[in-house]
Design a protein that fits this description.
Blueprint: E1 4-5, E2 35-36, E3 45-49, H1 68-78, E4 86-89, H2 95-98, H3 104-112, H4 124-127, H5 140-159, E5 165-168, H6 189-198, E6 204-208, H7 215-220, E7 227-234, E8 259-264, H8 270-288, E9 292-296, H9 314-325, E10 331-334, H10 341-355, E11 358-359, H11 398-413, H12 434-446
Parallel strand pairs: 3-4, 3-5, 5-10, 6-7, 6-9, 7-8, 9-10
Antiparallel strand pairs: 1-4, 2-11
Helix pairs in contact: 1-10, 5-6, 8-9, 8-11, 9-10
This protein binds ligand V1D and calcium ion (CA).
The site of ligand V1D has 20 residues, from loops.
């Protein structure tokens, strides 16, 4: 099933009534605020979005607020970024598509449980790790299938060459396991998307810049060399979720040395984070030579996040996206965590502008009308100071960061160095998709 292209009317995007984007006499919907940066080879970008995913509630005291996606989309439209991308209204993933990774009994539970019948499922709740972090809420199945459908559509656009960069800000739910919800994540759309990419791509690199360790994706591909996972996160085994992802967590079996982790302490700042990121990502890409990259852009690594503990500003987070993009490989951008909705939306709008090679001013666009505008008071800018005041003391000394970097370089040395990572053999049956992989792989090898 191919994604449905949408005509870019604001109504199609669920903006109506009082929430219509305000157009004053000087602006029209066809006058974009974003402008293309001259002299850059522009990429084909697709934006995969479904407003229906945004209307779900985890519960009033739960930090995950799907309406942060509404705010993101309002900024994207307000700046006119839709004029620089192919926009698709995504469809729900089918149960068969979810079965590529998740088990039947878990999917059956997820599909059937509702707040009204939750009592009759009480015995199964602990088994599937439902509780305070992962509550049952109305429309949970629709929510999960919508964000997963968007990541699957996005991966398919990269595979068929219609997109160079595909974006799904509703995805990136990196903690979900095969038979278990975890850390606000129920279905692992990232694993599903990577499995699609592996049908044609011999090697896929997964990079995660959420403040939490990307444990679900790592676990899914722990014992294969066809996916390298690289996660930058706060690590404190006992006091910070999920408590995994130390530097010695490196993968196992055929996947030994193909899981990389960058454990960080509180308060890392822009300069240290971006330079560490670049100094690791560049050799990783040069050594591993992936055919495509999936980048999880969790926004809780920003300063001032409700659950995060870093001091990053939006430009620094965006610089990581820009750097990954500069390698020119097919790139899937997904969302993830992010618990201060106004900053999540600022970040993902800014990163949409990076993907589309456009410039957006820091002043919010006049097209951004009420009630959305008020969320950005009192500064009404895209780039407020988030991390520069150092809300968290920087506990990452230069020496510590250099040690972490060295440990990653040691892992890379086991891979033999560029351009040595050649897949001469058909890889082991990966989650039962051997036959589908084999022919495209042989073609890849010949090429
Ligand atoms: F503060 C809360 C209020 C209500 C419900 C949950 C929380 C909460 C905050 N932090 N839960 C957490 C983390 N859980 C624990 C558990 C308590 N147990 C003993 C462990 O500390 C979970 C944080 C999840 C982060 C998810 C994510 O940001 O990485 C994400 N990425 O993509 C989607 C979500
Ligand atoms: Ca997170």
């Amino acid at each position: 099933m191919s994604p449905t292209p949408i005509v870019q009317t604001y109504d199609t995007w669920g903006v109506s009534g009082n929430a219509t984007i305000a157009l004053d006499s000087k602006t029209t919907s066809s006058m974009p605020v974003a402008t293309r940066i001259a002299g850059r080879p522009t990429k084909k970008v697709s934006y995969h979005h479904n407003p229906l995913a945004e209307n779900h509630h985890f519960g009033s005291s739960h930090p995950m607020k799907p309406w942060r996606l509404t705010l993101t989309n309002q900024l994207v439209l307000g700046y006119g970024l839709q004029d620089y991308m192919d926009c698709y209204a995504t469809r729900a993933a089918t149960e068969d598509e979810l079965r590529e990774f998740h088990t039947d009994d878990y999917l059956e539970f997820l599909q059937r449980v509702t707040p009204e019948n939750a009592d009759s499922f009480a015995q199964q709740m602990p088994k599937f790790n439902f509780g305070d972090d992962c509550p049952v809420f109305t429309g949970i199945w629709d929510f999960c299938t919508l964000y997963s459908g968007a990541s699957l559509d996005a991966a398919k656009k990269l595979l068929n060459g219609q997109s160079d960069i595909a974006i799904n800000w509703s995805g990136g739910l990196h903690h979900a396991k095969k038979s278990e919800a975890s850390g606000f994540c129920y279905i692992n759309d990232i694993v599903l998307a990577i499995l699609q990419l592996l049908r044609h791509h011999p090697r896929v690199l997964y990079i995660d810049i959420d403040v939490h360790h990307g444990d679900g994706v790592e676990q899914a591909f722990f014992s294969t060399d066809r996916v390298m996972t690289l996660s930058f996160h706060k690590y404190d085994k006992d006091n910070f979720f999920p408590g995994t992802g130390n530097w010695d967590d490196i993968g196992g079996g055929a996947g030994k040395h193909y899981s990389l982790n960058v454990p960080l302490r509180d308060g890392i700042d822009d300069e240290n984070y971006v330079s560490l990121f670049k100094s690791i990502v560049e050799p990783v890409i040069e050594t591993y030579r992936p055919a495509s990259i999936v980048l999880q852009c969790g926004a809780d690594s920003l300063g001032a996040d409700r659950l995060g503990c870093f001091n990053l500003n939006i430009r620094a987070h965006g610089a990581c996206v820009e750097f990954v993009k500069s390698f020119g490989l097919p790139l899937l951008l997904v969302g993830g965590g992010g618990y201060t909705p106004r900053n999540v939306s600022r970040l993902w709008c800014y990163e949409t502008s990076i993907a589309t090679d456009t410039e957006v001013g820091t002043e919010l666009p006049p097209q951004l009308g009420d009630p959305f505008r008020e969320y950005f008071a009192p500064e009404y800018v895209l780039h407020p100071k988030l991390g520069t005041d150092g809300r968290y003391e920087n506990k990452n000394s230069r020496k510590y960061l250099e040690t972490v970097r060295q440990r990653i370089m040691e892992q890379l040395r086991y891979l033999g160095g560029a351009p040595g990572v050649q897949m001469q053999e058909v890889p082991p049956d990966l989650l039962g998709c051997q036959s589908e992989l084999e022919n495209p792989l042989k073609e890849d090898m010949k090429a």
